């Protein structure tokens, strides 16, 4: 199989980055996220652990639906609770 100069193989973390491309993140979150991706490049075992973690995290609403009828209402309540804590 021949490759053109324009062909690029997907990187080890491309499956992690793809779902998060449309997410608006704060600067600190972006820095932490990029640091995790850099760590994921250190070895195969770490890359798999990072991939599994992000896969697990992307499923949080599904996991919460086991406990709550409306996960969005749960998130809203959490945000309301947090905003009251920050105000004081």
List the helices and strands and how they pair.
Layout: H1 14-17, H2 27-40, H3 44-57, H4 60-64, H5 71-87
Helix pairs in contact: 2-3
Give the gist of this structure.
It is built from 5 helices and no strands. With 88 residues, the protein is an all-alpha fold.
Report on the architecture of this protein.
The structure is a single chain. With 88 residues, this protein is mainly α. It contains five helices and no strands. Among the domains are: 32 residues; 29 residues. Helix 2 packs antiparallel against helix 3. It is flat, with a radius of gyration of 18 Å.
Oligomer: single chain
Q: Give the N-to-C terminal Cα separation.
A: 64 Å
Structural class: mainly alpha
User: What's the helix-strand series?
Assistant: HHHHH
- How would you characterize the largest beta sheet? none
Average residue pLDDT: 74
**Per the principal axes of the C-alpha atoms, what is the gross shape?**
flat
> How many DSSP helices?
5
Looking at this protein, list some descriptive labels.
88 residues; mainly alpha; 61% helix; flat
């Amino acid at each position: 199989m021949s490759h053109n100069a324009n062909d690029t193989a997907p990187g080890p973390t491309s499956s992690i980055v793809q779902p998060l491309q449309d997410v608006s993140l704060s600067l600190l979150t972006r820095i932490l996220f990029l640091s995790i991706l850099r760590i994921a490049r250190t070895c195969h075992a770490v890359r798999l652990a990072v991939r599994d973690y992000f896969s697990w995290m992307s499923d949080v609403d599904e996991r919460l639906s086991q406990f709550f009828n409306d996960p969005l209402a749960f998130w809203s309540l959490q945000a309301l609770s947090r905003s009251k804590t920050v105000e004081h």
